[in-house]
Each structure stands twice: as structure tokens, then as C-alpha cells.
Amino acid sequence: MSLLVAERIGVSFGGVRAVQDLSFAVEAGEVFSIVGPNGAGKTTIFNLISRFYDVDGGRLLFDGADITRLPRHGVAERGIARTFQNTELFERETVLNNLLIGCHVYRRTGLVQDLLFLPAVRRQELAFRRTAEDVIDLLDLQHYRDQVIANLPYGIRKMVEVARALCLKPRLLLLDEPSSGLNPEETEDLAFWIEDINEELGITVIMVEHDMNLVARASDRVMALADGALLTIGAPEEVRRHPDVLRAYLGD
Ligand SMILES: Nc1ncnc2c1ncn2[C@@H]1O[C@H](COP(=O)(O)OP(=O)(O)O)[C@@H](O)[C@H]1O
Ligand SMILES: [Mg+2]
Question: In a mutational test of the pocket of ligand 1, which residue from 44, 82, 206, 223 has the highest number of ligand atoms less than 8 Å from its CB?
């Protein structure tokens, strides 16, 4: 059974069909990349999966369960985490606090318990802290742990976003243009992180990415889109050479 299945999903904004009649399946353990020109609908797919937008039609299945109408936090609780094309972190908070805030999507205790600060809440806080510290170690962010986001270079912020997503202990991680704004060396590092996240943590990754070298290097399969519609799905080299893909990028 595929981990994520999109069945004929679509969404329009005004007259624009941002995603149309799109079907694809992502297998557990894959790194699956989505490529296409600007405005092709790549980020919109992430917004549909993570339930920031409602589909106009079609279905989304995660691990066999229909998530099409789940609320956003429901999708997160089931194990889908994302990063944003432009990082969305709390600028005035430290790296550690950003991760702890990320962890709170998983909290099981309610407001009254929080107010009383019952032992269960305290245990949970300690568990979050451990998770956050583990992720900081994993992604080599120790040096930045107590620094405020606003003072950090862009490349580090991008990694903090990945770290925050990992604090949810996702089964599926959605990365939106992780290499944008990174220099070649940082992009090289990123390729290794993606490999580690995928192979060592066993997390399935869907990545929207424009750097074709990173895509070719990191992905098992690639899906190419143009104008919200599927062009092709296949191995990175096949997709790169596909006539419809070349045409979409060259604009005929
Ligand atoms: N919330 C929105 N409101 C209006 N139009 C949107 C919205 N989100 C996306 N679009 C439109 O949908 C199309 C696809 O956008 P997007 O998914 O961001 O493209 P990509 O990530 O591939 O560059 C674009 O034409 C964009 O303007
Ligand atoms: Mg985008």
C-alpha cells in the first residue's frame, strides 16, 4: 500500500486551475520530488496535503486512511510535517524555543491540565525537550541552539525549519524548495541531510525543488507538472529528458 495517494485532486482560485485532476502515489521510504516551472502548482499540492487548502475534488489517502477532510492538526498528528517555501519561524524566539513550539502540535493534555501543571504535562514537556535536543544534535545545530532566529543566516534558518518539522516525528516530510537561497556548499550539505532523514530516520520525503542536480541526486522518483497538470512521473533522468518537460521549461 502506498503511503500517500492523491486521487484526481484539484483546486481553483478564481479562474486559475492551480492543480487539476492530478493523481499520484508516493511509496513509503521514497524521496519523491515535484518539479515544474513557477506557478505550476507545486506549493499548492503541499497546501492541499497539509490541509491549508481544501480540494475542490478528488481524495487524499495517507496510510490507507482518507485525510481529505481532516483538520490541519489532524494531518500533523497522523505524521505529516512540512516546511515552507519562505521560512515561517518565530523571529524573536531562539532555535530551541522554535522547536519546542513545533512539538506542541502533539500535545495531548488540555488547557485545564496545563493550568494545574499536572505531572502528565510536566512529563510531556520533558519529552518534547528531549526530542528537540535530539533533533538539534542530529542536524548539527548545537552552535545555534540558544540564538534568536532573526540573527541567523538564511541557510541556518532553513535547517531550523527542517528541524522543527522533524520534532513532530513525521512519517512523511514535505520540503518546499529546501535549497532556495542556499549557496552551493549548503546545498551539498542539504543533500546529505535529506539522505540521513530518509535512510536513517526512515522518513518518506516529498520535496519541491528547482535545483535539478539536487533533485537528480536525492530523489528516487520525480513528478513533473505544468499549469497544475501532470506531465510525467519517473526516474530523475527520464523526467529530465522527457519532451513534455523540456517543452514546459523552454516555453516551446
Ligand atoms: N491562495 C491562493 N490564491 C490565489 N491564487 C493562488 C493561491 N495559491 C496559489 N495560487 C495560484 O495557483 C498557481 C500555482 O501556484 P503555486 O502552487 O504557488 O506554484 P508553484 O509552487 O509551482 O510555483 C499560481 O497561478 C498561483 O498564483
Ligand atoms: Mg512554490
Answer: 44
For the segment 189-245, what is each residue's pLDDT rounded down to a tens digit?
999 999 999 999 999 999 999 999 999 999 999 999 999 999 999 999 999 999 999
236 Rama sector, left if φ>0, alpha if ψ -120 to 50, beta otherwise: alpha
Sort strands 31-35 and 221-226 into parallel, antiparallel or unpaired: parallel
- Beta partners for 230? 225
Is 15 within 8 Å of 67 (Cβ atoms)? Answer: no
Q: Which domains does the chain have, with CATH numbers?
A: 1-78+171-252 (3.40.50.300), 80-169 (3.40.50.300)
Ligand that comes closest to the CA of residue 54: 1
Partners of 106 in the beta sheet? none
Task: Tell me which amino acid residue 5 is.
Answer: V
Strand 31-35 and strand 204-208: the pairing is parallel
Cell of 232: 510525467
For ligand 1, mutation pick of 12, 16, 51, 249 (most atoms within 8 Å of CB): 16
Please give the angle made by the CA atoms of 98, 26 and 29, to the nearest 5 degrees: 70
Phi and psi at residue 35, in whole multiples of 5°? -125, 165
Q: Whole-structure pTM over 0.70, yes or no?
A: yes
150 is written with which cell numbers? 532573526
CA-to-CA separations, 78 to 50, 102, 204, in angstroms, rounded: 11, 15, 13
Residue range 86-97, pLDDT digits in tens: 888 999 999 999
